[in-house]
Amino acid sequence: MEPMNSIALDSNSRRPASRISLKNYGVTHYYDSATSNDERDYGYFGGSVHEDLAFTGAARSITISRLRREIRNNPYLAGLVSKFPEAVGLSNMRSRTTDNAFNDIKERLWRRWSKSVTISGDSLRSLERIIWAEMLLAGELFIVLLKNGKVQVVPSEFCGSPIKEGLEREGNGILYSANGRPRAYRFGSLNAQGTIDFSDGKSTIINARDVIHIYDKDRVLMGRGLPWLLPSLQTARDLYEITRAKTKQIKDVNSIFGWIQRTAETSGLSGLSEDLDDDGKPEVEDGDSPADKLNTKKRRIEISPGTILELEDGEKLEFLKGEYNASDYKELIMLMLHAISSPVGLPVELWFSGLGDVNYSGFKGLGVQWDSRRQYLIQFIEDKFLNRLQFWRMSKASNEGDLPEHPEGQAELVDWAFRSTAVLDEEKVTNANLKRLKSGEECHADIWERKGFYPDEVLKRRRNVYIKALEAADPSAEIDPESVRVPLSFLFMNEIPKAEASPAQDAS
Fold it and tell me: Which of 47, 169, 183, 338 is the most exposed place for a label (fewest CB within 10 A)?
């Protein structure tokens, strides 16, 4: 039986999504979810199942530019974005083939290349931090693989399509094949006006096999990524403006601002209602001035610190603001901070310091919650970026003779180690590890790998420490490192063996 051809789902159509009027209130359906009324506003909704038809190039440009500006001015959002890469951690690659010599060469080659990965000289660690920040702000990043063994990082804004006819199989900067698979990407260039030009003469089209498109695909028909902070933008902006408004309110309270209220017929404050001209100087009357000039100007009294105001009989001074209410201010801030961080998955208490409302057990629960989210993020960056980058770079090194032939069928056997999630009580974790060791549930290798170390590295390092200790104890002795037998108790438990008695001690 011949395989069935792929179904055309119109994934590359550039037709606008159908719009449904929100004025159809009062229409009742069998399903409450499809019922609209004037008591519940669902906002804009349409029948499109294609994400790229809703999040177009214009919407993407506006949203990303606002997010980038917000993290430079909004301390709350800046704190979240700066903490996120640190909370996830950085990768550490180890080759896991059966050939130890091949593993050592491959790991040294990878470490040396990782120090300068991009054409601008950025290291792999710096690139990973950029990737996490771009996931939050843009939802995607493009890594172009170059022939010289370096990579070029292209932000989301530089991928797009020109506005013209005849682009049936191109949308949002992606050129599709007949079955809807990306076959190339279009990257624009900055023009003299500071905008990005996607026209044929100013843009570059690169084959998809030379581009690593990093994004989290959570819908079937989705060719471009969405900013992870997209649902948090309005809340973050509201929080920033509320904080500024509260600060201004506190400052205004320190200034006397009110009015004079008359409770009886009175001539008013004497000496304070002097007629002033447009320049603020007292008006001088001459002989030609009217005998009874009508004063229509509002009286303005400026009170400086330390001023004592004398009121006439029947007058009292009313203050517009006497104090500011901040009883629910913290609760509102916390609700908004949770709303900002929820789409990202990083608990507020792990990046917003000084809360003081989480007890010991609650903080441990937050650590467990973040550890689960962190494992998902680690798997995401391994699948979308690290595995493909490693295979491309090491294949190039093998073709150029810098890397020997790998064992048959083991070209992709690598592991990515990340340090374990930080815990609140290290002593309790240590006791739990001891119990698992005694019960046989785990071995030392499991504990070391959970902390981001590989067993062979730990054992080699401890062996070297043991040999250096022997050399330091007797500098005149000739020690052959290859023939030294290190006790297993030292390799696994760091137990120092008893020193052998010297001949002088035996004689005594």
Answer: 47
